[in-house]
Amino acid sequence: MATQQNFKQPVQRSGESALSISIGPSTPLPEPQAAPWGAKWRSSSWFITLVVALGTSTDILTYTIVVPVLPYRLQEMGYTNVSGLTAWLLFAYSAGIFVFTFPIAYFFHRHPYRRVPLVAAVIILELSLVLFMLAKPYWTMVVSRFLQGAASTVVWSVGFALICENVEEENVGRQIGFAMAGVSIGSTIAPPIGGALYDSLGWHAPFVFCIIVCAIDLILRLFVLERADIRKFHEKRLGLEAGALKPRIVDGEVVTPKHASLPDNSFMQLTTAEKEKLSGVELTPWQVLVALGRSGRGMTSLLTMFCFGLIMGSTEPTLTLRVQSLWDKSSNFVGLVYLAAAAPTFFCGPIVGALADKYGAEWIMVPCMILALPWLPLLLLKKSLAGFIVFFAFDNLLVSAAMSPTGLEVTMVSRSVPGISEIHQFSAMNIAFAVSTAIGTIAGGQMYDHLQNGWAAVIWFSFASAVAIIPLQFFFSGNISLYRRLFDRKAVRERDIEERDSAANDGGRDKEVANGQLSPEPTMGNLEREV
Questions:
Q1: 345 contacts 396 by C-beta, under 8 angstroms
Q2: CATH number at residue 292
Q3: How many CB atoms within 10 Å of residue 487?
Q4: What's the pLDDT tens digit per position in 207-257?
Q5: What does the alpha-carbon distance between residue 426 and residue 413 come to, in Å, rounded to a whole number?
Q6: Could you tell me if residue 336 is inside a domain?
Q7: Domain count, the chain
Q8: SS3 of 34, please?
Q9: Has residue 503 been placed in a domain?
Q10: Considering the entire predicted model, what is its pTM?
Q11: pLDDT digits (tens, 9 = 90+) for 376-403
Q12: Domain extent at residue 95
């Protein structure tokens, strides 16, 4: 039997006859050879999720660890206008992401390598950390942050695409949530560790710690086994020609070969990008941007990430100075403030991802963003440091929860728009985050330095950003938007009828339809059927 993807019939039908196609000679099978060490767990969805989660954690750790100590370092080096200079260093990181994201996404969409770029990225990250640690002139610090942003691009595009290519659709939100938890882990441990190491051991200590973490990350990335690696091993073991086990087009249909000695051929399943390539559906970078812009659901996800970047970016270069000027606290204490605020978000990603899988992202994004609004103005209060920390923690938790389902949203969009793959969507999301954090850091730093009440300006800027995104989330987020659920019951009933009919004709997709995670439009993932 061969699994085929017929691009003329978008619905999988039960009860069809199975066609047996085998490859390889009819001679006795070669003696079994040992698979690569740990092949099962090294290629498992959970290990891949762990690697990407550690990658995001390492990325955020290396980015955030200097935030509470950088102003003190610049003051020691004799610089003035510290908030503005700090903002430009954070901007350089975002610029690296912006410059490299789409070239990397375009190349690795056409050439679906995953492990090699992930390994190269962490090596570049380590080199950039060494440069930043030893830098004396300000411009070398800017260059090192730019390189760090370039390395960050890979884990946020290639890494998350790797998850989506190895996880069942009904569990994508959960697995992305676990990977997104790396953001919370990194942002939780970085500030207190950075502050404590800087106070105790000096400027080099935080970077030595980051280099050690990167080394661990590098080892785990080296262990990742892609489907292509397993396929090549079996081709060599069975004495087949290179590419013999690779899906191919036969009589207009994409056929996944099946060999008698390979009862499990899951490693030969096609990724979204591979299906598009074989079917002739490939878009230029400009066409990708146009296709993304036409999806209200996709654009809402990107703008939600943009809003998150504005809020986080505007507070990063200013919060340290605010706590220092108002309560005269050291970098070590500022790190503890970040820890208290970020710790609750550690559990946010997996929980929110699982809830979004089950109930839909629309029930998460809008309520959480609305609930985040009251906490921002409370950060203007000056009397209680404990109250300030609590308010910051609630705001950070709720904004993070509103952002978390964006990964699931862009994945669902990529599977409903021909020519768009997960790597495109995550790259676009990475661009949105890079541009918004760049704008946020520059705007926040300049407002804090040059306005009479700079902190209030930063807070109201963040408040306005959060308010602006709520209408888009209300009208467009989720498989069925909150607006349609509340005010267009007829359309919802019609959608339910369509889904029940689809479930009756496609028993294998009952669970996904019941969870409301599938689009009614044909997707590349729905083009699979057995003939």
A1: yes
A2: 1.20.1250.20
A3: 10
A4: 999 999 999 999 999 998 877 777 777 677 777 766 666 666 666 566 666
A5: 11
A6: yes
A7: 1
A8: coil
A9: no
A10: 0.71
A11: 999 998 888 889 989 998 998 899 899 8
A12: 40-226+286-479
